[in-house]
Amino acid sequence: xLVVQQVIANKEAYxxxxxxxxxxxxxVFEKVIALDEDRRGTQxxxxxxxxxxxxxxxxxxxxxxxxxxxxxxxxKEKTAxxxxxxxxxxxxLAEIQEELATLLYTIPNIPHDSVPxxxxxxxxEEVYKEGEIPKLEDGALPHWELAKKYDIIDFExxxxxxxxxxxxxxxxxxxxxxxxxxxFLDKNTEAGYKEFQVPHLVxxxxxxxxxxxxxxxxxxxxxxxxxxxxxxTAEVPVTxxxxxxxxxxxxxxVCCTGYTPCFRREAGSYGAHVRGLNRLHQxxxxxxxxxxxxxxxxxxxxxMVEHVKDILRTLQLPYRILRLCGGDIGFTSALTYDFEVFxxxxxxxxxxxxxxxxxxxQANRLKLRYKDANGKxxxxxxxNGSSLALPRVLAGILENYQTSKGIKIPEVLVPYCGxxxxx
Length: 423
Description:
3-stranded antiparallel sheet, alpha+beta, single chain
């Protein structure tokens, strides 16, 4: 969330920046500033009351020592009144702080200057494209037909067990899925990311820490009996490993990677764009997360983009990179690049990764700080990226590598899955 002092200092600039998101910040900022003034005034009253109470307590001891009981008892009455006043002020202060935090949670992050104007994904800016789109043989099939033909993914069986959006991977399909996870993790660890295995459920504090709550509450599966949430991405548990931490500048950057299943309650819709692996309620993803010094975070973002590029080059999949516009960028992100792979059989681009810099937005929620060279505590910058999301990568491989003989496995994956063809 935003830092109140920065909102006060940059009010007009922030209002203008948030207009890119079609968010009218003026009335919200005015309320934030008024609440902060009330908070500071109440805090000052409380501090003065506590100071007077401490002062009188010391005087009472001296008066009793000097046998001035009448004066001591009068001060005791005043001290009792001050304790009641301080109790009321403490309660009022807690209410103001809670109201202020709740309000700040409703304000999205300030978009970076490079974020383009726009209302929807149609206004996103293509910044890079690489790879030749293969020419498929006559009769090329979309991945859901290929999955059925070669008996590697069973969507109907998933419906039987759970419901739509929960596929069952079988045989070489399951092995290819496992191969992709292993390959992505190896690429990430070779690049300096430390691997973590993390819980697949998180508590409410973790959801608030990374910004899924309250913004995306309706998109998360909620285990009501235990008040836990199934994770929508490994970003949530991995970043929350460092919640409430004070790191040392010499320990930065912190680079993490992890594989998890992901669970998302997507709104129901129909058509080819959501068929097969295009949109799922449960899917696998390998994630990278970085914690950086403020001045290094955008160089780190560029490095993460290059890292994902390298993985896609080795898979020899045609892809492009989009800079998301103000109307499409995520609630917590300051700048996001989406990677899309071209699905030749579907003749469309499929999103396979988002790489984002959240600047200090998540860190302020998480109370994640580092002590700089001058001994001053600073909010860290957090970043994350899909490296990579498996379903649409798998769809791209199945469709772009299909031949009349079967589906050829990308060369770099053969050592991981142990076969060269799905036939």
